[in-house]
Request: fold
Amino acid sequence: MIYFDNAATSFPKPDIVYQSIMKAMKEYGANPGRSGHKLALRLGREIFETREVIAKLFNIKNPMNVIFTFNCTESLNLGIKGILNRGDHVVTTSMEHNSVLRPLKALEKEGIETTIVKGDLMGRINPIDIENSIKHNTKLIITTHISNLTGTIIPIEAIGQIAKKNGIYYLVDAAQSAGVYNIDVEKMNIDMLAFPGHKCLLGPQGTGGLYIREGLDIKEMGQGGTGSISHLLEQPGVRPDRYESGTPNGPGIIGLGAGINYILQEGMDKVRKHEEELTKHFIEEITKIDKVKVYGPLDVRYQAAVVPINIGDVDSSELSYILDQDYDIEVRPGLHCAPIAHKTIGTFEQGVVRFSFGLYNTHEEIEQGIKAIKEISREA
Amino acid sequence: MIYFDNAATSFPKPDIVYQSIMKAMKEYGANPGRSGHKLALRLGREIFETREVIAKLFNIKNPMNVIFTFNCTESLNLGIKGILNRGDHVVTTSMEHNSVLRPLKALEKEGIETTIVKGDLMGRINPIDIENSIKHNTKLIITTHISNLTGTIIPIEAIGQIAKKNGIYYLVDAAQSAGVYNIDVEKMNIDMLAFPGHKCLLGPQGTGGLYIREGLDIKEMGQGGTGSISHLLEQPGVRPDRYESGTPNGPGIIGLGAGINYILQEGMDKVRKHEEELTKHFIEEITKIDKVKVYGPLDVRYQAAVVPINIGDVDSSELSYILDQDYDIEVRPGLHCAPIAHKTIGTFEQGVVRFSFGLYNTHEEIEQGIKAIKEISREA
Reply:
């Protein structure tokens, strides 16, 4: 079986991730921060270590500004809804995932206005278009770092400068980039950074996070027990407690820490270069094949390890099914929860089949993928 | 090490739970519902099987009315905020956890009014007091099933009848009961049931759920990708998708299913009887010890395997520390995120040390706990 669906979730994970989760569950699977005994303290301490390594990865000065969430979607909802109020205006892009677009759509009913800056046919966003969309009441800019549909890398540093210059907050959706592409919240002027644990950071499902800049006061989505200031009925204002009510995914967070440490030990540059090599070769070869349409910038300087394709007019679900059944190659068809991105690149009707590569994919697997596409396109 | 902190999180879990999680992560750790390939389909199917076994456990007719969440706190926030609007009135009790009280406190600012029915010194709630608190604008009754502080069992069936008779919705917090005490949402007139995965249901942290009665239209807390109706920017109305945006905790849900199946195979009555025996003996013996104060009904017909104590005026944190350091017994001190419950039973200043027993505790461990309390109280 060849797994080319890493943009949905990375698979497999490094062994150390599995081992760390199992060790935490079996040896000290207590409730961190809820009790003071050895097990609870150990789990609490290691959760803090994961906060620290995330802070290190993204150049976040204070680890307490890293909030753990259930997934990147929750992170985005928290960031978006926490900061916006009636009368505010938001600028975002046509390349966003539904995890950004649907919360914004829901907020329309509450009097929050959105401008969607359109990308070009390759999914590229021009920062100038973002700057031109700023109005007197623009409070927030939201962009993805890498399109989950086309792999297009969005120039977040340039957009961060625009945000800073105009006194507007900047929220980055790092769902497809955190763990592979360099992100520096200080240098890039990122006020909030949403990321999943289970994609390129190599952690388990059920983990994610949101960085919130020091002093940026956003509303919490939920309230509950925090193990702190328990005598008060008001939600505590202290971070991360304010945003982390109830029992956390302790062993999951330990696994996430192990995943990030694995990346740091391997070297993020090495991981990225590996993915770039695979992607470059794959794009080069499949663009030569008759009837194959490939989307995105088609240049690894501007496109991550996410390559959407179609073969002639074959329905994307059918193509994906053939790859799964006849070639044991796992990819994802359809709209990928990014409807406007499909309109942007002209694939809203057909969908695309998305190939997405990861740490553990090999050159040999890429060759097999290319071979499969050649064979199918011959018969299409 | 003796673990008496099962009310915070059950530990350890049955081996099959660890094995199921590992198997899911290593063999088919894809993104369910996001792709159509073998791995994703298998994980999706097994997640549905967990929905089914939860439906079976609580006598829920349609498994699609079981919503998976991050934890019980999220379930409660979803249930509470999803249903209440400005001008509504809620009846709840003084025995609730901060996961109920803090969301209600936050809603006060939005014009939602709360009446807190006070329990007696044993933490008992009189259903008549609840009925007497109902007003013309009462929309919701919220009670815990079992107090996390005193173990007091709340008569949810009687309260459910009151809710039904008065045309009011009933939300039950089953944080301490789901998996040990019988819950039948039909028979008990429960409209929403919030439960954690990692306590008596023996699943991992990072799992929880909310049952929402068929046809009860509550607002979702977040929006995002659901892998369904992806061409629409509006959040889909279909269950469970409406309430489950983003990647779920796939392997965690598989582990939760394994935990529930384990309980059903053992027999929930057998598990409960075991816990009752331990609790009965523990209460009988420690109530005989000089200087020891024990709280709750002190009768296992009305008290679950949660026993709060104090020794003289010893600070609860200190007592807990001694138990941990000198006896290797893990318990929880303090306020347990239930401040009004402490006021109800008169322990707001001192806190309590909570002993909470689970499936894997033995009679021998209970004897050691009793012995430790005897020794400490002699020196106190």
